[in-house]
Specification:
It is a single chain. The chain has a single domain (3-263), classed as Alpha-Beta Barrel (TIM Barrel), CATH 3.20.20.150. 38% of the residues lie in helices and 14% in strands. It has 10 helices and 8 strands. It has an 8-stranded parallel β-sheet with strand order 1-8-7-6-5-4-3-2. Strand 7, helix 8 (220-229) and strand 8 form a beta-alpha-beta unit. Its EC number is 5.3.1.22. It comes from Pseudomonas chlororaphis.
Amino acid sequence: MPKFAPNLYHLFTELPIRKRFAAAAAHGFDAVEWHFPYELPKHELKALLTDNGLQLVHALMPVDQSVTWGLAGQPDKIDEFKRSAELALEYAATVGIATLHPHPGQMPPQYSQEQCLDVLVSNLDYFCAQAASLDLTLVLESVCTIRAPKTMLRTLGQAAEVVKEVGRPNLKVLYDSYHVRNEEAGSLCAIFDEFQEVIGHVQIANVPGRHEPGVGDVDLQYFISHMHECGYRGWIGLEYDPLKDTASSLSWLANYKGIRAKLSK
């Protein structure tokens, strides 16, 4: 059965952040994503997860709020990247983050694409080496130009090339259906099949509005079934914005055993 993890940056936002963990557990989830776990002290975060029987399966690398998107591909922010990596590893070691996204950031105007990619490869190699003792996978995400016009990595193929160049076993790609559908030609299933061996995490949201399955142009439940039939057993992050509210946006999960009973309460 597929495994789902709501993203607490997008779901349960009707509640303050500390209450979102209990809400996720009450709806039958065993895991969550959260972009910014560093907003809470790491031991408090661990207690929230433990008390609610949850795993933290995906987070972003910490980044200064004045910086757009990320640090990993920024030639003038290498020291800042390393400090950010250190903080991320502290949290991963304490709370057990399963996958972490070190976003390269958007293209800075003063550097070439080649310069940025060279720095990205070097930074990721460093981060992977530092993370080698942890049960942690770094995942590199491609981002559609609708969301980030100056994005450094637009396609899964570009992200996969970076992963190949780094050559570390704890670095993979993140497959996000929203970004893939907005940026790439071909079906979601065909693109998944092409890159399945290097996919370390999956997130779903529909297009065009980044809403839940059943609201939009793509049959995401068919895509979920396809991934499962192909042997994907990792977590599927629910990184969508509910059309109305969180509770109603989860009604499609009644089709999945283990979630159904808790949703019906």
